[in-house]
Amino acid sequence: MTVGELYGKLKDKSKWFFMERDIERIFSALRSSGDFWEVLDRSEVPVLLVSWLVGEFEREGLVEVVEEEVRLTEEGRRFCEENRIPEHRRLECPWCRGKAVHVEAYMKVLREFKRLVSERPKPLRQYDQGFVTEESTIARVVLMAARGDLEGKKVLVLGDDDLVGLALALTGAPGEVVVLDIDDRLLDFIENKAREVGFHGLEVRRADFRDPLSEDLVGRFDVFLTDPSESLPALRAFIGRGVVGLKGIGGAGYFGLTRAESSLWKWRELEKILVQDFGMAITDIIHDFNAYLGWGYEREMKAWNYLPVKSEPKGIWYRSCWFRIERVEETHLENAPIEGEIVEDDEMATA
Amino acid sequence: MTVGELYGKLKDKSKWFFMERDIERIFSALRSSGDFWEVLDRSEVPVLLVSWLVGEFEREGLVEVVEEEVRLTEEGRRFCEENRIPEHRRLECPWCRGKAVHVEAYMKVLREFKRLVSERPKPLRQYDQGFVTEESTIARVVLMAARGDLEGKKVLVLGDDDLVGLALALTGAPGEVVVLDIDDRLLDFIENKAREVGFHGLEVRRADFRDPLSEDLVGRFDVFLTDPSESLPALRAFIGRGVVGLKGIGGAGYFGLTRAESSLWKWRELEKILVQDFGMAITDIIHDFNAYLGWGYEREMKAWNYLPVKSEPKGIWYRSCWFRIERVEETHLENAPIEGEIVEDDEMATA
């Protein structure tokens, strides 16, 4: 059987956007691991689609679930060989783990950050929270320094379970940091710790990104960061509020986007919005820059029911790519309220 | 004086797209080095614009040219401090030099490649040639392996002074490699060396990218690579021919784009074309992935007359960011001939 034939059998049954390449990507991941969470991570195909497809592959006799592992059958291995699907290899730089920046240049900040965040609030499913490793947070700050987005800059953080605001405070470098979040526990934590380390340019405010950005924050910042829920309406809302907060041309933004909850179809739709509507150039997309720690509510997330294997993840399995964008044209931006629930779409798995 | 005030003085005199940020970027680079080529490299502002601006800064008493060096004056240093413009820091990972991939995983290929290319043809100005370090070429191959774009794949290389075709041949991994170039010297070299290493899946053909892609190559490939001249018409032509060569959805492309010859305005225009017209999602943009060796015709290039310092570069000063794109929608593509000269625009400096 060719990949094209298998795709032909399945494509009309899928409720998700899906391409032949996704079949290749999943089999390539399956050749490299039997741990389903690792397969999810390596395949770079949306979680719900992988879960459904692995069930279909099982029906086709290409994979089998044995003792909490998803394994290729004899026929599955033949399928890979006939279609020249190689074993997945990550091949990221072993030093920076593909982050491309030199986190060790901020080793003191990293060490201090690790000490400070040990009592951080636990992630809440209600707010689609789930935070990244301390190295990921500090790498964001290092990237900002490398791109001239740190020293003396006014920085807006929209949603901060990753505690970037606190990391920024630790560097002492920004001119101003404003952290917006819906969760008072986080805001209190960040405010207290920033005061503890003696940074006085940080302000926290409770905000819901369905509401317009507060008037006094509009057009005030050089840089924003956000790590949105990945429905298109939420991406547009979070990133859009950030762009509204920028001073204008030359203003920069950073945000994360996964392959686990966003197909490349969604990537492209978002990129159209960024480039066309928001007037931004995309300057960097760093693959798997952010590594997320388990958030402790895996069993409650939407994807759990779809998983072919009901074991808890053993390590990091959820990563996001990190975008940098920079404003090139003063396009017209909306700062209007958004009605209804925005953190839902067919590809979202963790909410 | 603020950056905004200086910008106000200069913006109407410039014939290039130019933003306040560019002034910051140049001063940040000037704080870190007096070598003009290093300033060009670090500022990430188009070469011709930097050259012109440095002249204007000199008139303003902010910089001075002394003994082949561009230095900040006392007033220039004060300008940086008052505007909180920090010294530029590259902060790339010292191991992979910001490439994010593990080139050492292909050490044998790299070593063999270095041996083979020692007799490569010299770059010709007539074709806007200028090649990257061997590490950059092999890093492209490693990235392809990591993204599932190598093993068993049909690969089209459009223009190959970087000898990617030969590097691909050395891995033995692709199903097929077709190299197109206008320069017979390169084609002969690649063909002979590929035969020497025993790879028989490589074909070379003379081609001019102003002509349509040959019919038998249309819709045939899984992956393409190109490193175009950076006028928008040339970018559209080179990358467009590559996309026309792809099988369709799931097909991937790679290409380089600099800040030295392309403002972020041009970046955005190109990104609109990629996303909108070509139906691609941009999956990776790896900053300064490609490092170019001096091409030996610096004195003949367009920028030379504009340079405030007429010394030859001492090291690598010209880099490009490396894009990966993947086809998501079968948009309508043109494969029509293009009339006239396409490798010229106001930002281009090296042709």
Any overview of this molecule?
The structure is a homodimer of 351-residue chains. With 351 residues, the first copy, chain A, is α/β, with parallel strands linked by helices. Chain A folds into two domains: 80 residues, Winged helix-like DNA-binding domain superfamily/Winged helix DNA-binding domain (Arc Repressor Mutant, subunit A, Orthogonal Bundle), CATH 1.10.10.10; 225 residues, Vaccinia Virus protein VP39 (Rossmann fold), CATH 3.40.50.150. The first copy, chain A, has eleven helices and nine strands. In chain A, the strands form two sheets. Chain A has a seven-stranded mixed beta sheet with strand order 5-4-3-6-7-9-8, with helices on both faces. Chain A has a two-stranded antiparallel sheet with strand order 1-2. In chain A, α1 crosses α2 and α2 crosses α3. The longest helix of chain A is centred in the C-terminal third of the chain and has 14 residues. The two termini of chain A are 36 Å apart.
Strand content of chain A: 15-25%
Structural class of chain A: alpha/beta
Number of helices of chain A: 11
Largest Cβ-defined interface: A-B, 58 and 58 residues
Count of all domains of chain A = 2
Oligomer: homodimer
Spatial strand arrangement across the major sheet of chain A: 5-4-3-6-7-9-8
CATH superfamily of the largest domain in chain A: Vaccinia Virus protein VP39
Number of strands of chain A: 9
What is the fold's blueprint, element by element?
The structure is a homodimer of 351-residue chains.
Chain A: H1 3-10, H2 20-32, H3 36-43, H4 47-59, E1 63-66, E2 69-72, H5 74-82, H6 107-116, H7 134-146, E3 154-158, H8 164-171, E4 176-181, H9 184-196, E5 202-206, E6 223-226, H10 232-245, E7 252-257, H11 264-277, E8 280-292, E9 318-327
Parallel strand pairs in A: 3-4, 3-6, 4-5, 6-7
Antiparallel strand pairs in A: 1-2, 7-9, 8-9
Helix pairs in contact in A: 1-2, 2-3, 6-8, 8-9
